[in-house]
């Protein structure tokens, strides 16, 4: 049987250094942190109107400040307490209660019950739930990946993702539900699932898609999918956003139209250009060269996350880092895909660029947790790691 990613990672030259003792010293991957700065600036410049009202620009600066505080605060935490099953199950129960509470206590905004309104600000619970799903799957697979070939572990892990997936989908928040599914699928794959079971997963996915289409999806969600298949059939209706987005991306050509000169976004032909379609607005103004630089910065972030994951003290930290990388890659893939017309419009933000506090704080919280784990990632004795790897 081929070795899993975890088996390869544990032989990637990790030195069994002695446990670190002492206070809460700050241990930050500055390459990772500084790679986010140009992305944040790109988002700010793209959403800045330069004239008149700058609501999104000003509020985003506040959210960035809050996200930085969360990042550095989490960098000081010792997250080994999250390895305790009772802690994770308590957090899972709270998260499910909050998601259910959205249907009972919350009023619909644009047809969706996705937000908790606190007056001065709002929170979208589905964003931090993504981190919780990663933590639970990391805990589950960290003790069971050796026997992951057993289909029951695929099904049990699927249950942990399926419950929040359904509750988020019913809000309805199709974009976040897709990300939760991709997180589960990605973590199952890196845990060493067999090819036949992977094929079974895809067959179940096809069956689930059929059931969702028949009994769950609302008419406007079906319209988005049908518009994806035939994008030019309704460019004044359901396909308008995707059509304008592809025009914006294509019109950027090689060097772009220049900052502030994007006609599709600045003249409001492209709706939601500060959030869902910020990639199209950025590509229109910065062109192909700007997009290449953008992807390079995303690549640096993913690389640093994976590099930190490989040096994890145990399987839990390794899998958590892998899950965070999968979360970022899923967001990027889905957002860019819908901006260039390759995927249906799902309302998925682009990491670090799109306006919004919930997703931005969640992203920096995940990175901050990785930094907190980095503080003790070299502290494991080889025997301790071997025991957890073997589940004894």
UniProtKB/TrEMBL annotation:
GO cellular component, one term: plasma membrane
Keywords: Cell shape, Membrane, Transmembrane, Transmembrane helix
Annotated InterPro entries: FtsW/RodA, RodA/MrdB
Subcellular location: Membrane
GO molecular function: lipid-linked peptidoglycan transporter activity
Main location: membrane
Stretches that traverse the bilayer: 30-49, 61-79, 86-105, 125-142, 154-170, 176-193, 198-216, 286-306, 318-340, 352-370
One BP annotation, GO: cell division
Topology term for the membrane: Multi-pass membrane protein
Name the record gives this protein: Rod shape-determining protein RodA
Organism of origin: Candidatus Nomurabacteria bacterium CG1_02_47_685
